[in-house]
Amino acid sequence: MAFCRYCGRKLEDGEVCNCRDTAAAPNTTQQDVQPPQQEFQPSQPWGAPPYQETQTTQQPWGAPTQQGAQPSQQGGTPVQPEVKPAQPAIQWGPLARTALKDFVNLLKSPANYSAPYVRGKNLITSLAFFLLHAICAGIFSMFLVGRINGLIGLGGSYTAGMAFSSIGAFFLTLLYSIILSVVLTALYFCGVKLLKGQIDLYEAFSIVSMRSVIAIPIALLSCLVFLLNITAGLVFYYLVGAIAGVAFLFAGSQNIVGISKDRRLYLCMSIIIVFTIFFILFASWVLPSYIPSSIRGLFSLESILGSL
Asked: What's the angle, vertex CA 299, arms to CA 294 and CA 303, rounded to 5?
C-alpha cells in the first residue's frame, strides 16, 4: 500500500495520483503537516498531581534570598526591594548637640540638672568633657611656658638652648590631665563602694566630669588673667579651679543612692584630700618631663660633681 508524496492520498497498487495535474484543485497541501507530537512529560508516581513546569529566577551565587519580592510589569523577574544605606554606629551630630546642651545646663543649674545628667550615664559625653578640660589645661600650660621662655630669653645667647617646648608642654598636660581625671573617677567609685552605696562606672564618670565642666571656663579665663598678671593667673587657675571643682563634685554626689547626706559630704572631703596628695606626688614625678634636657643636664649629679 502506497501514499501520494504530495497530498498524502492512499493509492492502490500501481495507481498514480493526479493531484498536481488538476488545475481546479485548491493550492493547499499537507506537505508541511506534521503529525501531532505528544508532549513529553516525566513519569509521575501513581496518584501524584500533574507535572507543572515552574519558572525560576537565577540569582548570583551567594546573593541573599529576598523576601516579599514583587514581580515586575514586563515579566516574571522579581523587583528587588530598595536597600537603604547602613547608618553609622555613632552619630556624632546628635552627640555633639547633647553634649552642648548638658554643658550649658550644668553651668546654669548644676544642683538641679545634675540628677538627670548623672542618671543619663552618657559615657561619651563624660569623656568629651574630660578631653575639653585637658585641652584647656594644655592651652594654659602654653601660656605659662611662653612667659618662662620670655624670661629665659633675657639671657641672650647664654640661655638660647634652655627654652621650653610649648608644643611638648601642651601634649604632656593633655595626657596628665586625662590621667588625673580617670584617677579621680576611680577614687570616687571605690569610695562609694566602701560606704556600700549604689553606683556604677558610668555614674562615676558622669559625676567627676561635672568638675571638668566648670574647669573648662575657669582655665580659659585664667589664660586671660595670666596675660595681665602672672601671679593672679596662677591663683585663679589653681585655687579658684579647685574650689569650683569641689563644689560641682558635691553637687553631683547628691545623686548617689544608699548614702546619707552627711556621708556624702565626708566622702567628697576624703576624696579631695586623697586626690590632692596624689596630685602633689604625681606632679613632682612628671615635672622633669617639662624641663629641657639641657637644663636637666646642668643639675645632674655628674655635672655637680664635675664642678667640684
From this structure: 90
- What whole-number distance in Å separates Cα of residue 215 and Cα of residue 99? 16
Whether 218 contacts 236, CB under 8 Å:
yes
Helix ranges, the chain (H): 92-108, 110-120, 123-152, 166-194, 201-228, 230-235, 241-253, 261-286, 293-298, 301-307
Residues composing the chain: 308
Lookup result for grid cell 582655665: 219
- The torsion angles phi and psi of 90, rounded to 5 degrees, stand at -120, 120
The pTM of this model reads: 0.67
pLDDT tens-digit map of 81-93:
666 665 556 677 8
Q: Which tens digits make up the pLDDT trace of 97-109?
A: 999 999 999 999 9
Q: How confident is the model at residue 305 (pLDDT cuts 50, 70, 90)?
A: very low
Cβ atoms 256, 200 nearer than 8 A = no
Taking the C-alpha atoms of residue 308 and residue 305, their distance in angstroms, rounded to an integer, is 5
Residue 70: phi and psi, rounded to 5, are -105, 140
CB 82 within 8 A of CB 68: no
If you ran DSSP here, which 8-state letter would residue 198 be given?
Answer: B
- Judge whether 90 and 122 are in contact, CB under 8 Å: no
Nearest to 178 by CA among 204, 208, 200: 208
What the block records as the C-alpha cell of 224 is 586671660
- Alpha carbons 230 and 87: distance in angstroms, whole number: 50
> Domain map of the chain by residue range?
121-151+163-288
Look up residue 255 and give its three cell numbers. 545623686
What lies within 8 Å, CB to CB, of 202 at 6+ separation is: 121, 122, 123, 126
Query: Is the CB of residue 137 less than 8 Å from the CB of residue 220?
Result: no
CB 217 within 8 A of CB 244: no
User: Coil, strand or helix: which one is 10?
Assistant: strand
204 phi and psi angles, rounded to 5 deg: -65, -40
Whether 165 and 291 have beta carbons less than 8 Å apart is answered as no
